[in-house]
Specification:
- With 122 residues, the protein is mostly helical.
- It folds into two domains: 66 residues, Arc Repressor Mutant, subunit A, CATH 1.10.10; 44 residues.
- The protein contains five helices and two strands; from the N terminus they run H-H-H-E-E-H-H.
- Strand 1 and strand 2 form a beta hairpin.
Length: 122
């Protein structure tokens, strides 16, 4: 069960989680998404919260509805790659800003990343 951050709307946090499922391949293009009530039970939230999250994802073109059948992940690989790039840039931006706040310069940040990646391979 996911712990929610009180400073961010719950539907946004669930939406971010579903986006991660999509860009990581846990959910693939064309896959059917869980029913509103099922996902609401999984996250222990009100079904209206999940409904709103699905509406937002649909508005962004990440999912689509088939009346009476359910919601599905877009099969547009360009959209999924764009989503992946957008999320990665957001993560990088946050990381770099935090490192700069600690006093690191760009070359030091790059060196730290390379050191981490090399250590991770060992």
């Amino acid at each position: 069960m996911k712990e929610f951050n009180n400073s961010i709307s719950i539907y946004v946090q669930i939406m971010d989680e579903v986006k991660r499922w999509i860009i990581s391949g846990k959910l693939k293009g064309g896959d059917k998404l869980p029913a509103v009530r099922e996902l609401a039970l999984d996250f222990k939230v009100n079904p209206n919260t999940v409904q709103r999250m699905y509406q937002e994802l649909e508005g962004e073109g990440i999912v689509y509805s088939q009346r009476g059948i359910g919601r599905f992940v877009t099969e547009d690989q360009g959209m999924i790659q764009g989503l992946k790039l957008s999320i990665s840039r957001s993560l990088i931006k946050t990381f770099v800003e935090e490192m700069q706040a600690l006093g690191f310069q760009a070359t030091e940040i790059a060196a730290e990343i390379m050191n981490y990646l090399q250590e991770d391979q060992n």
